[in-house]
Amino acid sequence: MTHAQVRGDPDLPEFLWGSDGVEDGPRPSSPRPAKTRPGHTPGEAGLWIFILGDMTLFAAILIVFLWERRSDPVVFGESAHQLIQPIGAANTLVLVLSSYLVVRAVFAHRGGRYPQARRLVAAAVGCAAVFAGLKAFEYYSEISSGHTPSSGTFFTFYFVLTGLHLLHVIVGTVLLLAWQAMLKGRRSWTGSQKVAEGIASYWHMVDLLWVAIFTLVYLVSAE
Amino acid sequence: MLTNRILTLCAWAGPATVVVALIGWLVAGVLPIPLGSESSVEKVVNFYSHDTRVLAGLVISTLGVSLVFPLIAVIGVHMVRMEGRTPILTFLQLITGAATGVCLLLPLLLMTTIAFRPDRSPELTMTLNDIAWLLFITPIAPFMIQNVAIGVAILNDKRQTLPRWVGYVNFWVAFSFIPDPLAFFFHSGPFAWRGIFIFWLALTTYAIFLIVMGLTLRKAIRESADPDLSAVAATAA
């Protein structure tokens, strides 16, 4: 096919060329030559811009949190003791377990064991639901005992950090369900590696962020 | 080709938005340290009383943020290429993009209006200043929908009109706007409107969005205009 044939109706605006049914036909705008690089990046390189950017933001909030704590360690300590540490600890274990399940699911998907992979992803979604449920109970008991986001710097940060994190858990759950749908359709590993590994990497980030939040907000502050 | 020159100009409008708006804010005194929700009445009234300088700076910044419109148009043209027959995300981006332009423009015009008659009752100036800033900081949904639409379109695009990492950058920018409505709840600290996680974070990431989109689009325009590259791609396909 010569280049001239690729070009569409010259009477149409250029951006409408080639939209007359040839779905995957070549366009004036071309695919980039794929870069081949040694080594393997889980998901794809671009995803890590998002993951690292996201973690930087959480890190910045945690640093400001620790900075504020320096000026008032006693009040921060008292406030941290108001948190329900066993729930925080249970949630940490739940998320670490879900991360493990996701790793197993990646291996199962890679090996073409679709039913097993589906069960593992479903179990990870179950963990996410348990996490959200425990978190909701924690919020409920804190708010009902008078600790709201506006009752002091500690609780402001606590609610902002855990709220942003919970949002990540919700987004992650939606992604896990999307992966589940791919497994249901028996999408092969070669066709879905980027997406599956990307979702798994995102989920590990959610887990890692919680470990950092639990350590600094629940444990270090209570020292 | 003239079309390409126009497209390139529109792409450069992205980085230009940042430069012109920042110059305007520096002249007006919005930067380096903006008025905060905890600023005293005296401070707020005093800010708007330097009328000519503040007015000139704000007018420059309204011109600056309006440069976002050409960028939204050129993003739209490339998203049509990505989407093909049913360019729903393209329309979504155009609609929300137009709304973001208005969301940026209105508060600045409101600030200009405050500076227009600075000798009014201080209470009124205070109220108007609150409206202007909260209107400026809090309407995040159009921005986030725009970013997500761009990101999804880029990741679904088999031709890779724009590199995939640009899609992920858009998701990250959308995420960074989430804390902004907290500006309603706090009068001081990092989550008040001029706090580090509200004004400064949103300013930084929106500037990153404008610059990244402008530069990557400029590259995409140059590559699609280059006959050698297009021919190589056509034979490859």
General description of the model:
The complex is a heterodimer of chains A (223) and B (237). Chain A contains 7 helices and no strands. Chain A has 223 residues and is mostly helical. The longest helix of chain A has 32 residues. Chain B is mainly α. Chain B has one domain. Chain B is elongated. The model of chain B has no long low-confidence stretch (mean pLDDT 91). At the A-B interface, helix 2 and helix 6 of A face helix 4, helix 8, helix 9 and helix 10 of B.
Q: Any guess at the CATH architecture of the largest domain in chain A?
A: Up-down Bundle
How is the quaternary structure best described? Answer: heterodimer
Largest sheet of chain A: none
- Fraction of residues in H or I helices of chain B: over 70%
What is the overall number of helices of chain A?
A: 7
Question: What's this model, at a glance?
Answer:
Chain A has 223 residues and is mostly helical. Helices cover 73% and strands 0% of the residues of chain A. The model of chain B has no long low-confidence stretch (mean pLDDT 91).
